[in-house]
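Inputs:
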Amino acid sequence: MSTALVADKRPSTLRGARLPKWSPWAIATGSIALGIGIGLAAGLDSEVQWGLLAGLLFLLGTYGIAARVEGRRQAKDRIATALVWVAFILAVVPLASLVWATVQRGVKVLDVYFLTHSMGVVADSEPGGGIYHAILGSLEQVGLATLIGAPIGVLTAIYLVEYGRGSLAKAVTFFVDVMTGIPSIVAGLFILSLMLMLDLQPFGFAGSLALAILMMPVVVRSTEEMLKLVPNELREASLALGVPKWRTILKVVLPTSIGGIVTGIMLSIARIAGETAPVLLLVFGNPFINANPFEGAQASLPLYIYQQYAQSAGSQPAYDRAWAASLTLIAFVMILNLVARGIARWKAPKTGR
Amino acid sequence: MDISTQKPQSPPPLPQPSVTEQKRAARGATRPGDRIFLGLTRGSGILLLVIMAAIAVFLTYRASLAISKDEGNFLTTFEWNTGAVPPVFGIAVLAFGTVVSSIIAMVIAVPIAVAIALFLTHYAPRRLRGPISYVIDLLAAVPSIVYGLWGALILVPHLNGLFGWLNDYLGWTGVFSWQDGPPRSMLTVGVLLAIMILPIITNVSREVFRQVPQMHEEAALALGATRWEVIRMAVLPFGRSGVISASMLGLGRALGETMAVATVLSPSFTIQTSLLDPGGGTFAQNIASKFSEATEFGRDALIASGLVLFVITLLVNGAARAIIARRKEYSGANA
């Protein structure tokens, strides 16, 4: 009886020998254990090495065992699978570490006091102080940038989708693509060169202009994608009723795609809210509260993080503040992202994709 | 049921409007409202072009002010001394550092990003694909200054062991020798940049791999190919140009990254042949670190180095876009 069962379970000669389904997990567990073991035994002090060792052992183990049992072609397939998994884990580890570090170190000083006070009378190396001035500056600069960048971006996208034929549209499309790749510091330098020529001192609105330049191409791209999703039948129906084209665009096309457009704008806000380099050049930073973006240096959240890190000569309270401000910034960006994606899902044009 | 039989007969030909009427109708600018609206939208399109042109013109103008007074050769001088009389500065060290750190980032990021893209399209369990894509998007959404802070305070201490290893086993090459400084070197910068450009390369590559014709893959499978052989024979050849342009988009990001480099690197104005020893600098990092104590002339000099960066990124991005434009469907601009 038992011999018959064993005989039935024998691999078919057609497919050749196969490793059991649980083998990758077993090899992974084994290599992680070995990696930690070797790391402990050899006294390697950093987890990076342990991880690399475990990954290497996993790849070698997979190949060795699979080559033995299944043959070389199958072994290559398995090692490719293993490599792809290892690559994925390699990408997740830094993200997990970053989020963990930011949350764990950020919550130390993050409280209502921190959010409602400025650094006005606090030296960089002392405990205390807060980010109220930075949040205020960030909101004003990003808000003004959005007021400039979003309408221009949306209008350009409308031109490209609804009107754009010919060489002008082609040129705009190409340069919008190229513009997405402009380093943020170059946008900052551009506004800086204007300020040098007009002999202006740093102020918040200058930062807004640079941020608006960075925002425009992103808004154009995402809006373009959304407008293209609007079915042509809707436009044709409206035009056939004698509605002028501009009213068709305003009353039919835009309302249909408004969810996606808002999503795109919010994602671009999330992107520029974290920009430091242009703000560093143009807004300069200010430990006091300055609510006027048109005159005098202002603070901003990303710039605050940089200055707490760079100007404090390694004092712990400043690092704590930097982490807390990072947590605030990440939370803001992530919430924007989540809400934007929520809107996208809720308001998506039903095209039956 | 045959669809073609249900089609209505084509209507009798209408009288054709004249050519000018056709043109006007095509532009849609026949009514005042239409004309205003068209003017507005076209105006903002033109404004974008003007901004691009203005960036080039103003940067060139301010840069020419600085370079004309430069006593050294702007391209080959190994110094950045804008305060001296006469001023001597050049971008040789910055160009070297920018290229080296970007190459390191590409060497690390491209294979991993392609692997993750394959993971998302061919390997991951179907239920996991959505959440994993979301995680990759989150990687892209983290501001660069936070990466910088994380890199400087978390990554750097963790690299001590790895650097020791590299020095022990590969130190004889000279490229991986290490003299026990803090690991705030080009290699660290490269690793951090790799993490930062991973999402964009992954996202664009994933879009390409998704478009591989199902038939090709099924044909390969039917011939008895393993999954890896399918990828090697059907997926990778199809996606090659897409992966190249994705990598160039990533390269553009790496070249221009400022804050992460400025926080992690401990800069010096020397060409550092060892990747593990601190020193060197990049265009963007140099601008950010030198800016606050620069005079007006010093700022012009920094603008000159920024102009070089602008031209390089313009070329890289333009090339990437040109490759992508041949296959319109997957523009990676949203990534």
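Residues 245 and 319 of chain B are 8 Å apart (CA to CA). Flag for discussion at group meeting.
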